[in-house]
Amino acid sequence: MPTNFTVVPVNDGPPGLPGAPGRDGGSPPGAAVPETLDSVFREEEDSGNTPGTPPGRTQLTNQVKDLYKTRPFLPDQETGGYYDGKNMALFEEEIDSHPMVSSLLNKLANYTNLTQGVREHEEAEYEDGAPRGPQMGTFIGVYLPCMQNILGVILFLRLTWIVGTAGVLGTFAIVFMCCACTMLTAISMSAIATNGVVPAGGAYYMISRSLGPEVGGAVGLCFYLGTTFAGSLYILGTIEILLTYIVPSSGVFVAARPEDEAWATSNNLRVYGSACLALMALVVFVGVKYVNKLALVFLACVALSLMAIYAGVIRTVIEPPDFPICLLGNRSMKNDKFDKCAKTELVNNETQTTLLWALFCNGSHLNATCDEYFTLNNVTEMPGIPGLLSGVIKDNLWGSYGPAGVFVERRGSVSEEVQENLVMDKPYVLNDISTFFTLLVGIYFPSVTGIMAGSNRSGDLRDAQRSIPVGTILAIATTSLIYQGGASVGKNLVIGTLAWPSPWVIVIGSFFSCCGAGLQSLTGAPRLLQAIARDGIIPALQVFGHGKANGEPTWALLMTVGICEIGILIASLDAVAPILSMFFLMCYLFVNLACAVQTLLRTPAWRPRFKFYHWTLSFLGMSLCLSLMFISSWYYALVAMVIAGCMYKYIEYRGAVKEWGDGIRGLSLNAARYALIRLEEAPPHTKNWRPQLLVLCKLDSDLEVKHPRLLSLTTQMKAGKGLTIVSSVLEGTYMGRGAEAKTGEQRLKAAMQEEKTKGFSHVVVTSSLRDGFSLLVQAAGLGGMKHNTVLLAWPAGWRGAPDYCWKNFIETVRETTSAHQALLVAKNIDRFPGNQQRLEGTVDVWWIVHDGGLLMLLPFLLKQHKVWKQCRMRIFTVAQMNDNSIQMKKDLQMFLYQLRLDAQVEVVEMHESDISAFTYEKTLVMEQRSQMLKQMQLSRNERQREAQLIHDLNTASHCSSSQRAAPEQVQMTWTKEKLITERNRHREGVGVKDLFSMRPNRSNVRRMHTAVKLNAAVLTKSQNAELVLLNMPGPPRNAEGDQNYMEFLEVLMEGLERVLLIRGGGREVITIYS
C-alpha cells in the first residue's frame, strides 16, 4: 500500500499578510485561523501589563507592538538571531541526535551504493567535478553479463560431447538439475537483493549480511576462488579453440609420436594460456571501462553463433549437412589421416589401396599383411548429422559410458571382434577420459554458473533491487531454453558443422565468447576480494583492500592472476570444471540457506520487495546444491568444505568483531528463547547440575577490577561449563553514574577476556552497596539460566574497615542461604594461581558437614583445568568420640568410588577436651572489642542527637521572633529532659560497665573452641596444601552476633594461604547414579 506524505507550511505572520489565512489564497472566510506569533505576543504583553509594571516598561512594550505591526517579522539586528529556527524550537535540543525529516530524506536521496574507487576515475566525475551515481540498468548491467557468462565455453566445446556420451535423456536430466539449481538460487538471491541496498560485493555482501561475517567471509572466499578458476576455464577454452580450430599448426610443442599428443597439447595450453592471461590482466589493469565496451561486441558474437546453430538445425530438415563419419566394423575413426573411407578404390579399371589401407597394413600392395580386425570387418560411411527426421534422437536416447582408452563404437552395428592389444597409431576414436554420469554433471555445471555476474556488479547498478532479480531470472530462463534445445541437436564432435551458413561463425563466436567471459571473471574476482578485504573480517587480506588512486584493486588483481595461473597450469578443461563447480555450488547453497533462515525467523527487517519466494524453495535449492556437490565429485566437495571450515574458524578466532544484524544472530536469539522456556518447565536434575556462577567483583576508584584473580578462579572452575555472570555495584543514582556503569562493564569485559572467562558482565547502580548485592542475588540471570552459586572474595582487613563492609558480607551470606544458592568465599584471592601457572601439590577438602556434595564436586571441576590438573585430591573428615573412624574411612572410600572420584581419604579424630585458656582469652577479647565498638557507636549517636537539639532550639527561637511564621511550624526532635533521660538509661545499662570485669558468653566460648581446634587440625594436615576447601558455618540468626561470626571465620582460616569456604545451597549436586 503506498504511503502519502503531505507537507504543511507553518504560518508565522499575522492575518492579512500574503500567504496568511484569510487573504489571497488563504483560508476562506469563516474558516479557523491558526494561532500566530502576533496573538501569542499580544497575550504575553496583555498578561505582563499589570498595575505594578513601571511606566518605562509600558512605553517600551508599546514601541515593540508598533514595530511588530509595521514589520511583522522581527529583524535580526534587533533580536540578535534569538528567534532563529522558531518553527521547530520545541525540538531544538534533540536536533543533534534526531535529525529533521528533510535532512534524512536529503541524505537518502544523495546516497550512492558505490564503494570508493569501484568505478573509473574518468567516469566518476563530471567536468564540474560533481560525482555521478551508477548508470547501469537491468539489460546492460545484469542480463547481458549473465548471458555472456552462462553461454560460454561449455556450450561450444563440451555440450555435444555430453549429449553423445550421456544420451538425450541423460543430458536433459543434467541440464534440468543444473538449471533448476540456479533458478531456485536466483529466486533466493532476488529476495535477499531486494531487502535493502546492495553495495559492491554482490553475493558476498548478501551472504555476509544475512549469515554473519564468519559464514560470509568463508563463502565469499570460496566464491572468489570459484570466479578465479572460472577465468582459468574460459582462458583454457579460448586457447583450445584457437589451437584446435583456428590455427592448429601454431603449437609450440609438436608430438613426434601419437603417444605424446596429450603431452604436447597440455604444454601448448600452458604456454598460450599464460600469455593470454597476461594480456587480459593488462586490459583489466588499464581500466574496467574497456571491458564493458568489449562486452557488447563479445555478446553479439555469441548471439550470432546461437542463431547460426538454430538455423543449421532447421536446415537439417530440408537438407542435412555433408559430414560423413567413417566406421570400421562398428568402430568410429578419425578422418584426418585419410581422405577416402574405403580400403581400396578403382583407378583406371585397376584396384588400388587407399591411405586407410596403409594405416592398417604393412604395405600398400594388396597382398600385404593387415590388422586382423581390419581384415575381418568392412569399412562403411554414414552421415554424421542425419537430420531431425532421420530418427537419430530415438537412437541416442540412452547414454554410452566407458573407461578411458576404449573404442567409440556405433550401437546397433555388427562387427567381428578379435583379441588385440590397443595400438595408439591406429586412427580409432578413443575415450579420452573415463566417462560416467556424475562426471558429466561436474563438467557441465560451470555452464550455468554465470547467474552471479549481475549481482557482482551491484555497485555499478542504478537500481540493484530491481535489476538483479529481473535480469538474473530472465537470463536463466533464456539460457535454459537454449540448452534444452541444444541438447537434442545430435551426436557429433564438432558443433560447427551444424552451423549455417558457415562453421566459422561458430568458431569465431565461441572464441570471442570465451574471451569475454574470461575478461568478466578477471574483472569481478578482484573486486570481490577487495570488498572482503575492506570489510576487515580477515586480517591477512588487509593489503588487498588497497589499489590505484582511482580505486582499481591492483593488489587483488595480482592475487587473482596468480591463482588463475594455477588453473591454467592444470591444462585440462575437464579437470578445472569440477573445481569451480564446487566453489560455486557452495556459494549457491549458502545463498539459499540465507534466504530460508531470514524467512523462517520473520525478523522485522526482512521486507523484500521480491514476493515470489518461499522458504521451501530455498531449502529445495539448498538440498539440490548439496546433492550436486557430491554427485559431481565427492572428494572435491570435501576439500571445498574443509577450506570453508578452516576459513570460518580463522575468522571466528582472528577476525574483527562485526555486528551486521545477520540471521545467525537472530537464529541464536530464537534458539536461546526456546531453550530458556524449556529450561523453566522443570527444575534441573542432580545429574545436570553445574555451578552457574554469579561473581561479585569490586571495582576501584578507576573502575578497574580490584581482584582479577577472582576471574581466574572462575575460569578454572568452568570445566562444568554453565553460566557465568560477573557483576559489580556502584553506589549512587543511575542518572548520575550511568556513564560510569557502562565504563565499568567495558572494564569487566576486558578483564574477563584477559582471564579467558566466558560469560556476561553487568554493573548496577543503587543507592547503597547492600541494595545492589541484594538485587543481583535476587534478579541476576533470566528464566532457567539463573545463577545457583555466588562467588566473592573474603573482606580482608575487615576489622579496620567501616562496619558496613563486613555487614554487607554477612547480609549477602544470609540472602544466598534464603535463596537456596551455594556460596563460595575465597580468602587471599590475590594469592590464587593465574591461568598460566601449573600446580603440583594437593587440594585438601575438609568435609565437616554434608550440604549437598558441592565440597567434593568443586575439586573435580578444578582438576579439569590445566592449572590444577597435576594436583592430588585429599578428603579429610572429622570423627567424634563415639564414631568408628576405621569404618568411617571404609564407607567414605566406597562412597567416593561410587561417585567416580579419585581421592585419598583420611579420618581425623577430634576428642572432647577442656576449653583451653587461650580459647577463653580469645573469646573474651572478642567480646570486649565488640562491646567497645558498641559504646563508641552509642557516643556518636549521642553527639548527633545533641547537635540536632541545638539546631532545633535555634530554629524555634528564630521562628518565635518572626511575625510571618506560624507557631505550629516549629517541631522539636528532642527535648532537654528527654535527652538526659535517654543518656542515663544507656549509661545505666552498659555505659558504666567495667569492660575488664566482663565474663564471655558460654555459647561464644564453645564456638571459639571449635574454631581453634579445627584450625589446629587443618594446619597440621594441610598447611602446605595448594588449596584448602572448608565447610562454611552458617551466619547467626540475629544481627547481634555478626561481628563474633566474622571472628570465628577468621580464626578458622588463620595460617592458611589459600582457602575456599563453601556453603551449599540446600540441594544435592552430586549423585552416585548414572
From TrEMBL:
One of its GO terms (molecular function) is potassium:chloride symporter activity. It is a multi-pass membrane protein. Residues 824-1074 form the SLC12A transporter C-terminal domain. Residues 1-34, 42-61 are annotated as: Disordered. Keywords: Cell membrane, Chloride, Glycoprotein, Ion transport, Membrane, Phosphoprotein, Potassium, Potassium transport, Symport, Transmembrane, Transmembrane helix, Transport. Pfam families: AA_permease (PF00324), SLC12 (PF03522). GO terms for biological process: cell volume homeostasis; chemical synaptic transmission; chloride ion homeostasis; potassium ion homeostasis; potassium ion import across plasma membrane. InterPro entries: AA-permease/SLC12A_dom (IPR004841), KCL_cotranspt (IPR000076), SLC12_C (IPR018491), SLC12A_fam (IPR004842). It is found in: Cell membrane. The chain crosses the membrane at residues 142-163, 169-194, 269-288, 295-314, 433-455, 467-486, 498-519, 555-573, 579-601, 613-637. Residues 142-312, 428-694 form the Amino acid permease/ SLC12A domain. It comes from the Eukaryota. It catalyses: K(+)(in) + chloride(in) = K(+)(out) + chloride(out). Residues 48-61 have a biased composition (Polar residues). One of its GO terms (cellular component) is synapse. Belongs to the SLC12A transporter family. K/Cl co-transporter subfamily. This is Solute carrier family 12 member 7.
